[in-house]
Amino acid sequence: MDERIIERLTELRQFAIEKGLVAEFFFHEEESALMRFANSAISLNTSEHLLRLEITVHEDNRRASFSLITNLDALEDMKDGVLQAGEILKHTQPLSYTPTIPVYQETFIEETAFDSDLAGISNAEKLDYFNRAVTGLESDQIKLGGIFSSGKNVVAAMNTNSGHALAFVTSDAQITIVLSHKTLKWEVIAEQSAQKKTDLYPMPLQRQLAYLLDHYQNAPAEQIPLGRYDIVFGPAAIAELVNTMNWIGFNGGMMKRGFSFLQEEDLGIQVLGSQFSLMDDPTHIETFPFSVDLMGVERKPFPLFEQGVFKAFTWDQDSADEFDAQPTGHDVMHKSLVVCAGNKPINSLEALVNAPRENDVLYIPYIHYMNFVNPSQGLITGSSRFGALLLKQDGRVVVPYNVRLTQSLKDIFGEKILWISDGQVAYNVSASYGARNPTALIVPNLVYVKDLEISHANSSY
Amino acid sequence: MQKQIKAQIDRIVSSGAIYADARWYPVEEEDYLSMWNGNLKSASAARESGIGVRVLYKGAWGFSASSDVNNLAGIFDKAYENARTAAERVTFPVRLAEKDALQAKFSSPNQIDPFTIAYDEKVAFLKQMDDLLNQPGVFQRVASLNFMRKQIIYIDSEGSEIEKNIIEVFPSIAVMGVDEDGETHERTFRPPRLGETRGWETIDKELFAGESERIVRELNQVLKAEPCPKDDRSVILLPGIMFLQTHETIGHALELDRILGYELAFAGGSFVTLEDFGSLRYGSEKLTARADATAVNSPGSFGYDDDGVPAQDNLLIDRGILVGAITGRQMVEEANATARKQIFRGSSGANRATSFYRVPIERMTNINIDPGNDGTLEDIIKDTEKGIVLDGDKSWSIGSNREQFHFATEIGWLVEDGEVTNVVKNSTYKGDTLKFYNALSAVGDESTWELKYVDNCGKGQPNQIMQLGHGIPVCRFDNVRIGE
Prior knowledge:
The complex is a heterodimer. By secondary structure, chain A is of the alpha+beta class. In chain A, 21% of the residues lie in helices and 38% in strands. Chain A contains eleven helices and 23 strands. In chain A, helix 1 (4-18) crosses helix 2 and helix 4 packs parallel to helix 5. The termini of chain B are far apart. Chains A and B meet through strand 1, strand 2, strand 3, helix 2 and helix 4 of A and strand 2, strand 3, helix 2, helix 3 and strand 16 of B.
């Protein structure tokens, strides 16, 4: 980490004190690169170096903030930002509660999730990774797409309560490889998340893509009848579904505002299936964890569901202040969600296809464009995409045209779960809206859920 | 600074690049204030500046951006290096459609710059809204103001130099309530764009006062309502949901980069193919849609796009037939070459980036539906035997090729034999895009047409948020599945 970040924080702190301001400072520095592929070419190759500074000032129960994209040499701009925040503060209205400002007891710098080799991976290495991952798979009809997103992320915080700072440095890579048919408009996908350079293995992706391509090119394709199906979700679908609970599930502030399918009376109650356990576990380095939150609270494994029993809401400090709750160490840019493994020794699509089955099974690896139809019911909707297969009871494999699933999370992760894989994988859900925020969940390789409704089926690709 | 940028462009081009451009943002500012249940939860301002550089080398793009413009040469070099790597994997060398080299300026029309308004006045507006929304049945109430101001200096190696100064104002109010089943419902109001400007003067306090009363009243109706039935009915979409229907299933579907497969790995593709232009019956004859970047009062109007191409008003769908797309300089060349015929005569001026640190891509401008001849909303309702009127975007989910969709709305009013009967809650509808637009049976007249803004359209990798508009009349579609 650039030592000047702490120096700048210290200078800004001193400046705020001199101006009589109670202030918090939050630095975010990213060195991001994204190599994007489309139509078998590199369609875009980007590099961005951005430094963001967010300044929040307080006076009793009033609060205002000012943020800027700047550079480390622009101290005067940063100081001006402090003054700007102070000016806005004069015109704010009192909150109904007094926000808590942390007192950092010691300086804490976490760099265990940083790998300079990954952060500095070259253009040539990224291109080589992609070339190896699709060796022998491209053709006139099969086109390569995807991204290799990688970077370095620095988060640092300080405030006027103490001269100590918190800082977190991570490296990350998110790789998505898509092979699409030029005219039929179907796509298959393989993905990998990396925290360090040695996490990068292109060949497993090549095998996954080759296996899916074989089915998509040779199996019959059809519009499947509407109705109820046994569905096996892949890691991407599981991660996306679980990730929605950050907003409409266990988030205490969202619950209090009426946007959750969980209520306070659900605490200690069996809400989901007995096979489903979920925790926020910052001991998993693959999740780019915060072992201390931005209030300076040490974070430990935090059970959310144990065998379907709802254990706790998460409370960030501001929501806890507003709703008179106890904060739970969740002032973080992302949680480290881990869905516990089950006991089924089926961990790949190939093993699933080869396993005997009593019913037709719909394999959905990825859910496209999910949205909350009714947060109070936990009702979501989304479409299948990227390599779904219908595994017929008689052993045949069919390619289904895309289908729509509109279902409650309580049903998906409820007692309809038949089994969960005994192996897990890190699935990267990082979004690149705004500041870089590498995020991954640990999820089982497969989750088998019985009797879910397919409410729409396309009549073609 | 412009001289330094030009010198760098010259240096890069003289060293082998085919083309280079730079977008320098001397300043981009944003104010955001949000009051939630009387608490001013957010009183924030933001400021940023920096430069983004595109370099085209042997048919491949490289891009680099930084908030530190002190090392201008380094930023250009990085973009060039990225392009040289990209050039190692080229399948269709990038060519840019012809355009005129322009020296131009654009300023969005404003009477009052919102950044000159004192915070006290802005906070007072929010407080006034909060007081108006604080009524029985309202469990949560939110009033927000968002202002943007940006200056963009665009310079390219073809001799263009364009300065844009753009101001935008995005106000909104919302109320939420809980019904007897413990479910939360919401009504929102985001004002249509009226008048000829887009500054602080567009915030009409009287309009907001009236609308606050309406959304509270309608929320309380929803809280007592029966659930939306599962049924097949005519759906009458008010502009408050028709804008999103248009956005998702006409706008995104007709972005040429999606049609050509450039978004397949993430956002998805389009069911539209190059062969469809000029022949595909997208909708009934009542459907005429256009990309109009000349509407003066909309965030989808910006003077010149980030290729330096002037804003235009182009037909997309002419009386039901697909005739146009949302395009930039690169994609029209590739599309014409791929189709082996001239489908597009040039860029439609729709290549935009959300900030200096993102690359321009095809974005919607103002994707509008022309008003029709089927009268007022009341006329359309009278002409409907069994239907439902829908308003307010609550949830939207679209198939990966924009071929099908599912929407949930904030409120529904059942229509029986030409009359509105009762309000229903949890209203939803779904359909297949082409089947749906071909079932368009009524389009409201000018009295039903509203220009709605969108301030958060997401697309691309790295992701970009864009502001745009939709001018939309009331539309009726027959035999649509609702309530699922």
